[in-house]
Each structure stands twice: as C-alpha cells, then as structure tokens.
Design a protein that fits this description.
This protein is 78% helix and 0% strand. The N terminus is likely disordered.
C-alpha cells in the first residue's frame, strides 16, 4: 500500500486497496490479524480493540463451519496474537505515526513516500509471519467438506468485493470512481479538499489502469493452489509435514500465484501513485497540513493509551 508523508492512508491503486480490504483464503485468515491493525488504528477504541479476537472469529466462522475443537483452537490463536500485538506492535505504530506527523510538516519526495510504504509493509509482514503457522494448522484441520465450503464462500466473497469495480468498468466510470475514492481518503486525513486538488486528482486518475479482472484471476489461481495442496492431505503417501510447508509458502508468498498481467499493471499503477501522491502533497494548504498532523498525533496517543488498558 502506497502512502505519502502528507497523506498516509490515500491509496491510489485499486490493487493496493484490494490487498487490504478484499481477501482471498489467505486474506480471510489474515483478516483475523489485520483487524488488530485496521480496527485498532482506524476505530482506535479500547471497546473494539479488546474484542478483535471475537470479531475475527465471527468473520472466519462466516466462511467455514468449525467444530468445537477448531473453534477453541481459533479463539486461542486469536487471543494469543492479540496479546502479542498489544505488547509488541502498538508502541511501534504509535512511534511511527508521531514520526510521520513530523515528516508531514513539509512536502516529501519519492524517497520519503517509499520509506513510509516500506515501514507499513514491514508492520504487515511481522503480523503475517506471526500468524502463518497457526493459520496453516487451522487449515490442516479442515475436513474435505469444510474445505469445499470454505473455497466456495471465498470465491463468492471475492466476486462480491469486486462488484463495484466491475460495474464501474462496465459503465465506463472506473476512473471517476478511483478519483472519488482518492478524494474521500484525502478529506478524511486533511479535513477538506480544494477545487484545485479535485481537478488534479481527476486528471491524474486517468493514468491508472484497472487491475480488477487480473486480480480476480490471480485470486482464483491462488485458491486453486491452496485448496489443491490441502486436498493432498487425504492422498495416500503424502507427508503431512510436506503439505504444511506448501501451505505456509502459499500463505507467506501469495504473489507466487499472481498472473504476469496483474503484476505488470500493479507495478505501473504503483509508479503512477507516487506521481499522484507527490502532486497532492505539494498542493496541501497550511491548514490541511496542520489538520493531518493533528490526526496522526491523536491517533498515536490513542494507540499508546490502549497499551496500558
């Protein structure tokens, strides 16, 4: 996900937005952990954060029917991960946000934006690396009937999550939708948006290329690889340890199943996003920049308060 020093949550690439909100099987399992970041940072209240394990469990059980033992294992996993996240990660996020608030006092450059992006991706990688072994064990416990249910529900969720983009493409309004999405994120962090910024965003959004169809194909390829590996557990002569290693690899590096077309378009959009983010950053008024700094510092303060609760 590409974020600017001045606009930390403005995603200008459909694929980037999909990679946090839309979930394949990997993301269905990762969501249980990402909730600790997304709800903990965006909602940022103790009420929600202290209940993330319950919310995540509800989500996963909406995709696959678990038995009593599996539900108990899931809750234990989520509870342990949330405790680790509170004790090890929240302070890192708060420190990062305060550093970002200082950086946002002035326009950044491409190097600044890439550095911010790398930090965010590092946080996600730590979370996923922590989660992968438990996620693999949960998947390994599913019966053939559960796997079939899980795969079908994931395919359905994937289609549902991309319906708006597919409709916008069909209606010839995809670039307009992208512009509106960017405007919404800009206003969320800066409190306002100028007419000049609206025109800038509308013009620059035309340079993005939709990755929706390629992403759907990549998701389908990943599901086929994952559920194919899981199905091998029931084949005579297959080593459970070898199957688990394949599952771990697919969880940790889902990009191994992405199509070449998707990766090419996503890379092009990633470069274009730096151009757009830089233009937005330079265009921020003093009032918008001050608002952004307050938002970031207040967010850091709320995260710090959660650590003690």
């Amino acid at each position: 996900m590409t974020r600017t020093a001045a606009s930390p949550n403005i995603s200008t690439d459909t694929s980037a937005r999909n990679e946090t909100d839309r979930l394949s099987c990997l993301r269905a399992l990762r969501l249980s952990l990402l909730l600790a970041v997304t709800l903990g940072i965006s909602a940022c209240t103790n009420f929600f954060y202290n209940r993330l394990d319950t919310l995540a469990a509800w989500y996963i059980q909406d995709l696959v029917s678990l038995d009593d033992t599996q539900r108990s294992d899931l809750r234990s996993w989520l509870d342990g991960t949330l405790q680790w996240h509170r004790s090890s990660e929240l302070m890192l996020y708060a420190k990062f946000l305060r550093e970002l608030a200082n950086t946002a006092a002035h326009p950044g450059n491409t190097s600044t934006y890439k550095s911010v992006e790398a930090r965010v991706e590092q946080f996600g990688s730590r979370l996923f690396e922590r989660a992968a072994p438990d996620a693999a064990r949960l998947l390994m416990s599913l019966s053939p009937e559960q796997l079939n249910e899980f795969e079908n529900n994931l395919a359905r969720k994937s289609r549902e999550r991309n319906e708006e983009n597919l409709k916008a493409l069909k209606d010839g309004k995809w670039h307009e939708k992208r512009a509106k999405d960017i405007e919404k994120q800009l206003k969320r962090w800066t409190g306002s948006i100028t007419r000049q910024q609206q025109l800038l965003i509308a013009e620059q959004s035309k340079q993005f290329d939709s990755t929706t169809a390629d992403w759907l194909e990549s998701q389908a390829r990943w599901r086929k690889a994952m559920f194919g590996a899981l199905g091998e557990r029931f084949t005579a002569g297959q080593s459970p340890a070898a199957v688990e290693q394949r599952i771990l690899a697919l969880l940790r590096t889902p990009e191994s199943q992405w199509t070449g077309a998707y990766q090419t378009r996503a890379a092009q959009n990633r470069e274009q996003s730096l151009v757009v983010l830089g233009a937005i950053d330079i265009s921020l008024t003093p009032e918008q920049r001050s608002h952004l700094q307050r938002e970031l510092n207040q967010l850091a303060q709320r995260l710090e308060s959660m650590i003690q609760s």
